[in-house]
Amino acid sequence: KSPLQTIGEEQTQNPYTELLVLKAHHDIVRFLVQLDECRFASAGDDGIIVVWNAQTGEKLLELNGHTQKITALITFPSLEASLEACEEKNQLILTASADRTVILWDCDTGRQVRKVSSFQSTVKCLIVLQRLDIWLSGGNDLCVWNQKLDLLCKTSHLSDTGISALIEIPKNCVVAAVGKELIIFRLVAPTEESVEWDILEIKHLLDHQDNILSMVNVNDVSFVTGSHVGEMIIWDILDWSVQACECNFWDPSPQLDTQQEIKLCQKPNDISIHHFTWDEENVFAAVGRGLYVYNLQMKRVIACQKSAHDSNVLHIAKLPNRQLISCSEDGSVRIWELREKQQLAAEPVPTGFFNMWGFGRVNKQASQPVKKQQENAPPCSLELIGDLIGHSSSVEMFLYFEDHGLVTCSADHLIILWKNGERESGLRSLKLFQKLEENGDLYL
Amino acid sequence: MISAPDVVAFTKEEEYEEEPYNEPPLPEEYSVPLFPFASQGANPWSKLSGAKFSRDFILISEFSEQVGPQPLLTIPNDTKVFGTFDLNYFSLRIMSVDYQASFVGHPPGSAYPKLNFVEDSKVVLGDSKEGAFAYVHHLTLYDLEARGFVRPFCMAYISADQHKIMQQFQELSAEFSKASECLKTGNRKAFAGELEKKLKDLDYTRTVLHTETEIQKKANDKGFYSSQAIEKANELASVEKSIIEHQDLLKQIRSYPHRKLKGSAPCPGESEHTQDQASQAAATSNLDESADTDLYTCRPAYTPKLIKAKSTKCFDKKLKTLEELCDTEYFTQTLAQLSHIEHMFRGDLCYLLTSQIDRALLKQQHITNFLFEDFVEVDDRVAEKQESAPPRPGPGRPPSRSLEECPIPQVLISVGSYKSSVESVPIKMEQELGDEEYKEVEVTEMSSLDPQENLDYLDMDMKGSISSGESIEVLGTEKSAAVLPKSDSQASLTVPLSPQVVRSKAVSHRTISEDSIEVLSTCPSEALIPDDFKASYPSAINEEESYADDSDGAIHFRASVSPPELGEAEEGSLETPPSQIDTSCCIGKESDSLRVPLSPPAHMPLDQDGVVSIPPQRYRQKDQGFHVDFALENANPSRDDSSEGFPADELDPDRLLASRDVSKTSLDTCSDTASNMSSVTSTSSDRTPASAHSSGSSSERHKKRAGQNALKFIRQYPFAHPAIYSLLSGRTLVVLGEDEAIVRKLVTALSIFVPNHSRYAKPVKHWVCSPLHITDFQKWKLIGLQRVASPAGTSSLHALSRYSRYTSVLDLDNKALRCPLYRGALVPRLADHRTQIKRGSTYYLHVQTVLTELCSKAFLYTFCHHLHLPAHDQETPDVVAGRQASFLKLTLGLVNEDVKVVQHLAELLKLRYTQEAPGTGRPTLRFDYVPSFLYKI
What we know:
The structure holds two protein chains of two kinds.
Chain A: E1 16-23, E2 29-36, E3 39-44, E4 49-53, E5 59-63, E6 70-76, E7 92-97, E8 102-106, E9 112-116, E10 125-129, E11 134-138, E12 142-146, E13 151-154, E14 163-169, E15 173-178, E16 181-188, E17 198-205, E18 212-217, E19 222-227, E20 232-236, E21 242-246, H1 260-264, E22 273-278, E23 282-287, E24 290-295, E25 300-305, E26 313-318, E27 323-328, E28 332-340, H2 357-363, H3 373-376, E29 380-389, E30 395-401, E31 405-410, E32 414-420, H4 421-438
Antiparallel strand pairs in A: 1-32, 2-3, 3-4, 4-5, 6-7, 7-8, 8-9, 10-11, 11-12, 12-13, 14-15, 15-16, 16-17, 18-19, 19-20, 20-21, 22-23, 23-24, 24-25, 26-27, 27-28, 28-29, 30-31, 31-32
Chain B: H1 44-49, E1 57-64, E2 68-75, H2 79-82, H3 87-95, E3 121-127, E4 132-142, E5 150-159, H4 162-167, H5 169-219, H6 227-260, H7 270-298, H8 309-312, H9 322-326, H10 328-344, H11 349-364, H12 375-388, H13 411-421, E6 430-432, E7 440-442, H14 451-462, E8 471-475, H15 478-483, H16 499-506, E9 516-520, H17 524-527, H18 546-551, E10 555-558, H19 564-574, H20 604-609, H21 616-625, H22 630-633, H23 635-641, H24 647-651, H25 653-670, H26 697-716, H27 720-728, E11 732-737, H28 740-750, E12 764-768, H29 774-779, E13 782-786, H30 791-802, E14 807-811, E15 816-820, H31 826-830, H32 840-863, H33 865-868, H34 877-891, H35 898-914, E16 925-926, E17 932-936
Main location (chain B): cytoplasm
GO cellular component, one term (chain B): presynapse
Pfam families (chain B): Folliculin
C-alpha cells in the first residue's frame, strides 16, 4: 500500500478548473515574484526575467540582461530616497545571476536601471532593509548597498559555499545562514563619528548539525531555521537563543521498528527541510516529502502528512482559509486543508492511506510510553482537497494571487496559471456585457 | 448547416456498397430498361431540356467588323462542355441583341473624335431551339485600328435553365461587371499605350515631312509653290491634325479613371499604374520607334501613309486579339474571374439558392457561427477575394444584389426561394399563425380540381414542359391534417397559383421530380433550421400500405422550438402525418427506429381516404435501386410516389431510371468525388454543385467522408455518446491507435463534433507520435495519438495517464473508452446508433442541424444578462447561480451533462465576443474534476 495520499478525479473542493499555460522561458523557471495585484515576474536558469499579467496570462515584458541563470529575485521598493531614474514610482526588481551581476530593473518599462558587476562570487540571496534604505547581497561574502547601488561596506570572505539564506531581525541585525552555522551581523549606520557604514559579525550559532536550507522570520519574537537532516530550531529573535528544537521527531530513527515500511522508502535527504511558512499559530514545514504543522504555543507538531508528495516538497504556502498549498519535485501541486481532528474514538479514520495513527506514533518522542500515544496524537489533520497536475517536471515555486488564482513554475520551462473556473466564467460574462454596453447593444 | 433547404440539393455521392441493406430484387415486370446513354455518363436531363451542351458555360463573342459575330473562347475551355452546341449561331444571337454601341467619331459640333464611355448592357435571352438561355453582358473595347475605335464584345453565361439565369440575374450581373471592368481597365491601358505609340509615329512623320518641306522650299526659289510642295504642306497639316486628335483621344482615355471612377473607392496605384504603364509603354515605344525610324530612314519610300489610320481599316489586316486589346495581365485576371463565375454558378439552381440562403442566415449568426461552421471562413475568403479583385464596379452599374449586400432573406423570400429552388412548383403558400405554441406557415394544397384539369393547367403554365409532380407542402398542424388526405403529388399540381409563386412556376421548363416535401415548421426561417431531422421517408414495404398514400414518399421535416423532450411528447399531436415520421432518420425504412412513429387519430382518415393509391412496388423499386436520403436525393424518393395516374411519369420512364443509373455509374467511376452529388439532377449545369463560394469539392468531400465515418463510429461503438459528449464539452479526446490511417480517419470523422475556438482552425490534431504535454490539451480538443510498443510508447502512455483528468481516451486497438459519464439527452439525438441516415453528407447535415440548435441555446444562455449578473446589489451569487441552473434546465430543457455542453459553448462565445482582435484570445484549458469510467465493447 502506497503511503502517498491520493485523491480521485472527483475534487469538489478544488476551485482550479481552468488553466493557462504560459510559455516564454527556455529553461527551468525557479523564481516567481509578485509585483502588484495583477502582475508577477518569473525568472530561471535561462537568465531572462519575464513580466506577466496574472489575469490574462499576457506576457508583458521580457527582461534580457543576464548571461547566466538567475540566482535571486526580489522586489525593490521605491523609497523616499528614490532613484532619479524612477520618478514615476515604477515597480522595480532586483535580480542576481550566476554571471556575478546584479541588475535593477524597471518592470513598467523593461528598462535596466542599474547594473552592478563588481562581485567576486555569485550572489545567492538578496534582502532589502527598508528601514535603513539599504539592501544586502549575500554570496561568499555579505555586501551592503544603498538605493543607488553604491557599495557601502562588505564583510570578509565568509565561506566558499556562500550564504544560503538571509533574514532581517531587529536591532539592525541580519542573520545569514552559512553552511551549518548561523551568523548574526549588525549594521552600523553612519553617525557623527563615522560617515561610513559598517557591518559587524556579532555571533555564530552552531546548533545545527547539517547545512541550513531554510530560514524564515516567523513572527516578531522568533525565527525558525531548518537543516538538511531535519532539524528545526526556533530561535528567539532578540537574544538568539534556542526556544525550541525539533530535531529528530520526524527522523525515522532505526529503533522505531514499527514504522519499517516508512523507513524503507525514506532516504536520508527525505527529511531535509526545504521550506517554511507560518501563520499566527503555526509553522508549516516542508520536510522531505512530507508536510508538518508545528504549533508554536504547544511546541509540538499538531498535524502532519508524512508522504504528502511522491518527491521532495519544494515550496509551501498558507492560504487565508486554513488551506496549505505545496508543490514538489514530482510535478504536482497539492492543496491541503488543516482540519480539527474528530474525536478519535468516535470517528474511525475513513480511508486506509489516510491513517494518521502511524504518524502519531512516529511523531512522539521515542521515550514516550506507548499508552500515551493516543492522547498525544496530532489534534489536527491535513486533508488533501485537491491536486493540480499540469507540469511534467518538478514544480519549483508557486505564487498565490487572491484574485487571479495560482501561478506555478516548473523545471519543464512552463508557467501555469491556475484559475477558478467559475469566477473566470463570471468575469467573462461581466466583460461580455460591458462590451455589449459599449457597443450600445445592451437591452435590459 | 443552417438550412433545411440543403436537403433539396439533388446530389449523389455514396457508395452503396457500404450500405448494409440488401433489398429484395425487383420483380421482372417492374424493371425498366436502363437509360441507353447512361454508360457514357451522359446526363439525361440535358437531353430532356433539349440543350446540346452538358453544363453551363461562359462564352465570349465578338462582333468582328471583318467577319461578323464570332465566338472567341469558352470557359471552361473544353469542347465536351458545349458539345454540339452551335457557338457561331449562338454568337450571332447574342451579338444581335439590340445593343447601343457607343458612338465614337466626330459628333456634330465637335472638332475631334470623342470617346464615349458607355455602360455595359446586360440582357437575358433565350433560344428555345437550342434550349439555351443566356445572360449576356455586352461591352465595348477600344481599338485604334478598329472602325470607330471600338470593338464590341460580349460575355454570355449560357445555361439550359432559364430559371437559373433569371433568378441569379443580379449575381451574374455583379460578377460579370467585375470581369468587364477588368477587361476595360486593361483595354484602356492598352489603348493609351497604343495612342502614345501612334503619337510618336505621327510626331516622327511630322518631323520628316517638315524637313522635306523645308528642303523643297530651299530648293525652290521661284516664289511659288509647286503642287508637290502644296501636297506636302497638306500632308503636314493632316498629320498635325491627326496628332491633335490623337492627343485628345489620349487625354480622354487617360482622364477616364479620374472621371469615371470618382466616387468609387480609389484603387491605389491604378491610375498611377496606368500612367506608369503608359509612360513605360511610351518609353519602350520610343525604343521601338527609334528602331522603326532607323528602319524607315533606311527605306527610301517612307511616306506618311504608313501611319495613316486608313491603312488599319483594310480587311486584310489582322485585328488585335482580345488579349492584345486588354493587356495580358488584365486578360488573365479576367479569365480567372470568369472561371470563378463559372465555378460560382455551377450546379443546380436550387443548390445555388439554398447555399445563398444558407450563407445569408449564417451571416446573421455572426456571433455563434464560428463554433461549428467551417463555412464562414470560406465566405470571408471569398469576400476578401472579391474585394481584392482588380476590376472595380463602375458607378452606373446597378447595385449588385450579391449576398454580401443583401442581408437576410425575408421570411417569405426564403420560403419562396426555397420553393423555387425545387424548381417550378405550383405552390400555394399561406402564412398563418398556428394555434399551437408556434407560428406556422403552411402551404396547402387544394386538390379540388380534377386531375385532367390539373394537367391542362399544368400544360398551360408550364409552357409545354414535361410535367412536374413536385410540390413543397409546408403544413400547418390541424389544417394540414385536414388537407393532407387529399394531398398527393399529383393533386398538388392543381393548386391555384398564389402570386408569390407565379414567377417561379411560369418560367419552369422542366421539372424533374415529383417530390412532395412537407415542411412542418414553426416559421419559415425555422424551417430552415430543423431541430432535428424529423424527416421520414415512408416505406411501403415495411409498413402498412395504407400509409403509403398519405405520406407519398414525401419528406417531412419538422422544426420544433420546443425542448426535445417536449417536442417528443407533443410530436404526435403536432405532426399530422406523423406515422411515417421517424424522428431520427431520413428514410423510414426501418420501423424499429428509436422513436416509434406515432399514429394519431387525426391521421386515420388519411388512410381510409385513399385518394391516391400508390403501388408498393414503386417503393420496392426505389429501395432496391438506392437508398435515398432526402437531403441530397429527394428526387429519387419522389419519383416513387409519382402515381400511375400521372402521365408525365409515363412519358418519361427512362429519364427517371436513367437518372438512377447515372448516379450509379458515377458512383462506380468516381464514387467518392463530390462531383457526383449533383449528377442526378443538375441538368444544364456542371455536375459539381460545388458550393458557389466554397473552395469546392474538397470541403464537400471532407464533410461527406467525415459524416460517413462518424456514422460508422456511432454504429460501431456503443460508447459513442460519452465520447461525443467529451468533444462537445471541451474535454480533449485522445484517439489512441497503432494504425495511422484508421486513427486519422476517425479523428477526421469526430472533428465534426468539435467546436471551434476561433474561426480559423479546428482544435484538432490528427496524428501525434510524441508524448502529450499539457499545452497539447490546451491547444487541441481532439488528438490522434500513435500507440507504440517501444519505451517511447510507454512514456507516451504514462503522460496520458498523468493527464487523464483532462482527457478522454478512446483506445481503438482495444475498443475501449475512458471518459466521464454522460446521461444527457442531446447526444443520443445527435448520434443515434439506430439512425437510418445512411449517407455521410446527410448525417453531416443532421449533425450541423442539431449543433445549430445547440449554438442558439448557448447564445441565449450567454447573452441573457440576468443569468450572469446580479439584478441588483443585494443579490448574492447564489441567487444568480440558481437562476442560471433553472434557465438551463427549464427554459433550455437541458438535462444532466447537457448543461455542461452549453456552458462550454457559452464560454467559447464569451471569449470570442470579448476578445479584441480575432485570434488574440488565448484558449484556456477548462476542465472539471469528474470521475471517468471505462467503457469496453
